UniProtKB/TrEMBL annotation, chains A, B:
It comes from Piscinibacter sakaiensis. InterPro entries: CadR-PbrR (IPR011791), DNA-bd_dom_put_sf (IPR009061), MerR-type_HTH_dom (IPR000551), MerR_fam (IPR047057). It comes from the Bacteria. This is Transcriptional regulator, MerR family. One of its GO terms (biological process) is positive regulation of DNA-templated transcription. PANTHER family: HTH-TYPE TRANSCRIPTIONAL REGULATOR ZNTR, REDOX-CYCLING DRUG-SENSING TRANSCRIPTIONAL ACTIVATOR SOXR. One of its GO terms (molecular function) is metal ion binding. Pfam families: MerR_1. Residues 1-71 form the HTH merR-type domain.
Length: 147, 147
DNA sequence: AAAATCCCTATAGTGGCTATAGGGTCAAGC
DNA sequence: GCTTGACCCTATAGCCACTATAGGGATTTT
């Protein structure tokens, strides 16, 4: 079973360029090539791609995924690190949810300051945005993805 | 009252380079310059920066902020657009929270598949990551910031 | 006068892709 | 054999909101 990059993309629900990007980033090994220099993939790589895509759908960064793949590639190791990584990731997600809920409170409070169709200079929202002194800290969330 | 970029940064809780970046992006007008070519800011710009930073702390993108600043600069306009932008932003935040809560469910379910210190090849989590066929769609969240 | 602190411009890097330019390969149909 | 079209290749630039770096000049303090 040898498939080309287009079929791998189709099977794993991503773009062709994304696969090449993962290869460049070292998440996928360099594949075999056809006589015409096309990338050729086997069952192994399909599994690996599914693994990566599933991790991405769980919002893991490529760095986190790289760590998991390294463990995956040395199967006799203790899986405690897998658990730790996942726990850490869950905590990140929870922190992000907390931050966003705080944010929503601020936004809805702000929104209530203007209900009508006044001229902008009288709009309570813009006034609120200038004068409010609260500086909430929302956690950074750099590794998000859609699948 | 004429302050230099360092003090403006201090007063608005951001880096000097960030202010220059906002200027380059057209959110701040080009300021006056001292004889030694230093940027000089007045009360007006401090307010404008506070506005921008507060919007950022509410996770608005620079594009959204640009829109608000344009309204801000033409104060006789109807403020309905301000309300609409904020409503839209609130919806974005709510959607992101929803997506993250779904994510957390998946992550905790996955986490329960392994409790111990087994070799990686027997780890339920990695198995779950390979075999699970669910492909949840998490919304993209490109405009996040910390203040 | 020297050192420390501020400021300047310009450029490259971050993550996880997406988009574009400019080509090569291969199977099917005429 | 020749064209069409679908697929593939590499290399490069762009997205966002910064951050970091290099290499210098201005001002203030010692």
């Amino acid at each position: 079973m040898e498939i080309r990059i287009g079929e791998l993309a189709q099977r794993t629900g991503c773009e062709v360029v994304t696969i090449r990007y993962y290869e460049k980033e070292g998440l996928l090994p360099e594949p075999a090539r056809s006589s015409g220099n096309y990338r050729l993939y086997g069952e192994e790589q399909v599994k690996r791609m599914q693994f990566i895509r599933h991790c991405r759908s769980l919002d893991m960064s490529l760095g986190e995924i790289r760590t998991l793949l390294n463990l995956w590639d040395s199967p006799t190791q203790d899986c405690g690190k897998v658990n730790a990584l996942l726990d850490d990731h869950i905590r990140q997600v929870e922190a992000r949810v907390e931050a966003l809920l705080q944010l929503r409170l601020h936004l809805t409070a702000l929104r209530e300051k203007c209900a009508g169709a006044r001229p902008v200079e009288a709009c309570g929202i813009l006034q609120g945005l200038v004068n409010c002194s609260c500086h909430t800290v929302s956690t950074r969330d750099e590794a998000s993805a859609g699948v």
